[in-house]
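We store chain and fold; thus.
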Amino acid sequence: MISTTVEEPLHVFDLPQIYQKPSGTDLIKALALLALQPRAFGTSAEAVKGPAVHPAGLTRYLTQIISSPLSWLETEELREAVWDAAGARLSERSGRAAMPAMSRIFNIPTSSGEDYTLTLHEPSLTADNLGMKTWVSSYLLSRRLHELLESPPELVPVGSTDRSTTSSRNKPVRALELGSGTGLVGLSFAALKGRGATVHLTDLPEIVPNLAHNTALNVELLNKTGATVTTGVLDWSETPTPPPAAEERFDVILAADPLYSPNHPKWLVDTIAPWLSKGLNARVVAEMPLRDAYLPQVHEFRQRMTDLGLAVVEEGEETGYDDWESADGNALAVKCWWSIWGWSEKV
């Protein structure tokens, strides 16, 4: 029986050895013990801890399994399962960027004190699909949404100056998420608002299939809360033609970690401009990391939003920990800026 304690970590010699021709079940159980998870998102630097495993000889053990024909196992499916598990364990030990596809659980606070649980699939990370990873600013914003949108400060009180807003007060809020990625923020908003909102999650063509998959993964929660969620492609670099009609615009636009190219501040604001409702209660809710390399883009975003006629209603900074690690294995703190924007005057 394989066992491990803090005092006596699991050693490679405690595992089923290939020369002994162990059963497929024993191999899969042993490989499950070796599974590593990325760091948990959060506001502390605590890592997710699994069984203590002595690293000596572990890479060789895994490569032996991968290179073995496993000819004593009865079915090809069982052999494939063992090879896949061994390959996954090897990938996990090559850093966060090399980890295989995974499903992750996120708990979303609500104003009632109950947590909603979202399950998100993240494909293996490559340089051309960074949008399929959940980033810490999305995590932080998803956990802040129930506070931010309960009763945001109003630039102009709802009243006689804006009859259209008053007459539409009972209609569901139309919300649009830009650069949804895995969908954490948009799905959180949808679950929190329930029947009070319709939410459209958008991203580039190569990201939308996984976004739609994550929406389907959470259908039970969305049905429970009465949420309406759709997904679709929206490329910020393309100007909508013809411009959206008034009834096609959105009351709330969400964006998390949207700036990672010099072009993005302009593209993002140019996308917000036609799609944001002109009502005085319209809001843009954004959160982005204050990484040194992208501070010029953050400043440009703020200036372009102001030039568009939007003003900050509320803002703040917070620090979270992404699931990356520094070279010494410690969690990396990420300072993020969140902001809520509204029209500075009736437009």
Q: What stands out?
A: Confidence is low (pLDDT under 50) at residues 154-167. Residues 18 and 68 are 8 Å apart (CA to CA). Strands lie at 102-109, 115-122, 173-178, 197-203, 228-233, 252-256, 283-289, 310-325, 331-343.
